[in-house]
Amino acid sequence: MSDTSADGASPRKHTKRRSIAGWRFVLWALVGAVVLGGLLRAFVVDVYYIPSGSMEPLLEPGDRVLVSRTEYRTGSIQRGDVVVFDGRGSLAPLRSSDPVLTQAVKTAGQWLGLTGSDTVYVKRVIGVAGDRVACCTDGDPRITVNGQPVEEPYLYPQDSPSEQAFDVVVPEGRLWLMGDHRSESADSRSLLGAPGGGLIPEERVIGRAQQILWPFERSTEIQRLELDSVWNSAE
C-alpha cells in the first residue's frame, strides 16, 4: 500500500499542514480579538484599576470599574458624576521621566487592568461651568454650590467636607473635582494657586464610571445622583 496521497504528499505532511492552518486561524482570531478589544476600549468603554482610597467608600483600592467613553458625546457632565480623567497638566505632570521600556510595561499593565495609571484619576464632579463652589465660609462646614449647602452622603465616614477653605467660580469648559475620601484625596483643592486654579478641563474627561466590575462581591452599578435630593436644589 502506498504511503502517499493522490497529490504525492504523505498523510504526515497533510496532518502537519492542517495543524499549521489551525494555528494560523487561532493566531488571527487572537489578533482580531485584541484589535476589536482595543477599538472598543479606545472609543466605547474601558476598564480602569483603582489604585488608591481617594474615592472610598464608593471605590476601594483594587477595584476595576467600567467607564463609558460615549455618554458625554450626547449628554452633559453633571454635578455628582464620578468621572475618570487624564490629569496631565493638572494633577500629573505633562511629561513622564520613565524610560521607554518602563512606560511600555506600565501601559500594558494598565490595559490589562492590573495596575493603575500615574496620569489617570477618578473623582466626583462638585462644580460645573458657572458654579460658585465654596467651603468653610461663614462658619458653615458644608460645601456650598451657588450659595446652597450640599448634603454629601457619599463622604467617607468621619471625614469633613474639607479641611481647606476655598471659594472659586468655575469658568466655561472647566470642572471642580473632589474625592469622596476628602482627607486622603489630592483633587482640585490641591491645585489652588497653581495655573488653572484647580479647575480641570472638560476635554480631559475620559468618561463616567458606570459600574464596579471586580471584585465580583462588590460588583454594582455606580448610580447617578438625584440632584434635587442630594444637591439640595443647588442649581
TrEMBL record:
Transmembrane segments: 21-44
Predominant cellular place of this UniProt entry's protein: membrane
GO molecular-function terms, A-Z: signal peptidase activity
Keywords of the record: Hydrolase, Membrane, Protease, Transmembrane, Transmembrane helix
Catalytic activities: Cleavage of hydrophobic, N-terminal signal or leader sequences from secreted and periplasmic proteins
One Pfam family, short name: Peptidase_S26
EC numbers on record: 3.4.21.89
Locations listed in the record: Cell membrane; Membrane
Keyword Nucleotidyltransferase attached: no
Membrane disposition: Single-pass type II membrane protein
Statement: the UniProt record of this protein carries the keyword Hydrolase: yes
Peptidase S26 domain ranges (all copies): 27-214
Enzyme kind, highest EC tier: hydrolase
InterPro entries linked to this entry: LexA/Signal_pep-like_sf, Pept_S26A_signal_pept_1, Peptidase_S26
Family according to the record: Belongs to the peptidase S26 family.
Protein name: Signal peptidase I
Organism: Arthrobacter gallicola
